[in-house]
Structures are given as structure tokens and as C-alpha cells.
Give the backbone structure.
Amino acid sequence: MRTMLTIGLILGLTGGVRAQPRDVNYDESKVPAYVLPDPLVMVDGRAVTPAEMWRSERRPEILRLFETRVYGRAPARPSQTHFEVISGPETALSGRAIRTEVDVYLLGEAAGPKMTLLIYLPANATGPVPAFLALNFFGNQSIHPDPRITMSTAWMRPVSANGIRNNRATEASRGVQASRWPVETIISRGYALVTIYCGDIDPDYDDGFQNGIHPHFYRDGQTRPAADEWGTIAAWAWGLSRALDYLELDDRIDHGRVAVMGHSRLGKTALWAAATDERFALAISNNSGCGGAALSRRRYGETVKHINDAMPHWFCGNFKLYNDRESALPVDQHMLIALIAPRPVYIASAEKDRWADPKGEFLAARHAGPVYRLLGERGVGVEQMPEVGKPVGEMVRYHVRAGEHDVTTFDWRAYLQFADRHLKGG
Ligand code: GCU
């Protein structure tokens, strides 16, 4: 009852209605004073120099803290990879692309759970191409009207405006998210696009971890992940790594140049995937907010308590210990970005997306800087948030664009430029 009274409803940009608590702070003067943990000081107080100590001691320490306190520990890579090409390769998009669909079996064997990769390659590629790998919210068929994309049959959030009925995608869902996926532009720039429905790995609702990938890893008698074991975001990130295992075997793609990208909850996931799997060459967080790029200690917009209350399955059990106790966290999200160092990372905000705290995202990007510098790279390079629409930074790049929580042409133009620079040496 109490929750009912304190919940207001606003229109969510995935096309549905999203609940937003009324106790949310959007007043900069009410951001509490806070001290961020220093990424270059060990928990036991030792200073982290030289760079080698980052690699051998502090990075593993921070990774372990995020694993056990925030996202949860995921299982190791399966010892083998099993996949089946289910369609293609065939010409698509008026001859400009080659489309292939591949089922990747998540346990590495020809049984059990699988996820379907939709792959578009530039038709004119003469050798292995770099790729963007990104999870989607409403099935592969939602990213483009291409009628030959296999329709997802998996459980989906019931957003009727997106053509989802009775928790299943219908024909009306084809291409509903196309504005966020400029496939033709991506391939014309010489990249492959690889996408997977996140619910193939774990459906996005709190069912006590009975469906999705988690139960396949329960020990005898175990019925849900332990408090330091993986939640749904860690499972999605683990799935992205399994996609990369497959890409390593597909010689049309240069697996050393794969950028992992995601929006919102899937942006949180992209950052965690890049943090846990150093094979990802570049990471892009689009409007990822709380539990993604935004500093938790600012308590601006969505807080740790808001997110844990609304989405108890996203993070590990231990993360709930920090509801309204952000200052007790041994990490903050600048350290998540630092785990990606020295690889290129792009943090993008939207001006009106206050729920995701654009300034908190900028500050996390900025405070990852000392780690990039220690490793010989340049971070965002500015002290203050840049003007709207003006990207800044070198290895850590940041922009806040005009508009709402979404993925837009402006964002993709910036990401392609960033990828050209770092994955193609342009
Ligand atoms: C909710 C949630 C956010 C998340 C967003 C999304 O708004 O509170 O943390 O980023 O959904 O994924 O669309």
C-alpha cells in the first residue's frame, strides 16, 4: 500500500509507462557531501603506483568488490562453444548487407539454453571487420523492419505500443526500435552489427531466478544465487562474453575489435561486460544511470534504494545492503569505468534524462581519469561538464546531448567517430 501511494507514473521511453518514486531528488543543492573511494588507493591504504600495481593488485581488488557487492559473481567461461547457424548468410538490406542468424548455446553444449545472434555484415567487406555488439530490449526483429529477421518467441515485457501481446512479440513489433539501430549507417561505415535479445539470457523480471540462465548453475540444493552471486545484469554481461566466444570463431569479424554497447539497463550491462571481459576493445554506455555510469553517492535521480526496490533481480543480494547507505560502498561507479582502462570508453548522457543523473555520469567519467593517466592515456580532459552537444575526451569520451532518455542519431554519429578513431586508427 505504502509503495502504491509513493509511486508516480511517467511515460517511459521504451514506449511503456514507468514508475518513478516521488522521493526523488532533482535539486543539485540537495546532493549530499560525499567522498569518493580513491581508485589508486588499496583497501588497506597502500598507494597504487606504479602502473603494474594497478594491474596486479588494485584492478583485481576493485573487480572483486564490484563482483561481490554490486553485480554478483558469474560462472567461468564454458570449456567449449557450441553454435548453430539458423539462417543465412544471405544478402539483405537491398544488397548492402549480409545477414546471418546464429544460435549460441550458453552452456557450450548442444542442449540447454541458447541465445540468437542477429549479425549484419557490410556486403562489400574484403576481410574481417570490427563490430558493435549490443543487447536489445524487444527481440532481434524489433531493431529493423527487415522481414526475414526471425521473430523472437521468448518472454517479453508487455509493452503493447511495441507490439508485445501476452508477453510475446507479434508481427507488429518488427522494426519498432529501428530509430535506435541505424543498421545501414553502421554497415556503410565498415562495421558489423551483432545483436541479441537480452531475455534470451535472462528474462527481465523478478521471478526469484527460476527461469533464465541462473538455475543451470545451481549447486545441489541451491534455489537462488547466493548474496554475492550474479543478478540479471551480470547474467546479461556474461551472455555478451559468450557472444564474443562465438565471434572469435567467425572469421568474418575481427574479434579483437569488438565494441560492446548498450542503452539504459543494457548500458549498465555493457560497462560491466567490458569490466569483466578484457577482450572487449571498446565500451559504450548510453544513458546508463544508476548502477551504470552515474555516481551512486550523489543520490540525484535514481538511487541505489530506488533501483533495488524496483528491480530486485538486477544486482546481487549484497547490493541491497547499500540502500540509503551509499557512503558505505567500497566502490563507486567511476571505478567501474576505471576497470575498462586503458581501453576506450564512451559515456553518454541526455540533458532531460535527469533520472539517470547526467552530471553524475560526467563526474564518474572524469574521476576514472587518474587510472587512465597512470596507464599512459588521457581521460575526459576537462574539469566541468561540457556544453550540451559537445563531446569531450580522448580515451574516456563523454557527451550530454539535448533531449530525452533514448538512443539517437547524434549518439550513433559520435560512437561511430569514436570507433573509427580507436578501432580503425582513423
Ligand atoms: C528504469 C530504471 C533505470 C534503467 C531504465 C531502463 O528507468 O530505473 O535504472 O536504466 O529503466 O533500462 O530503461
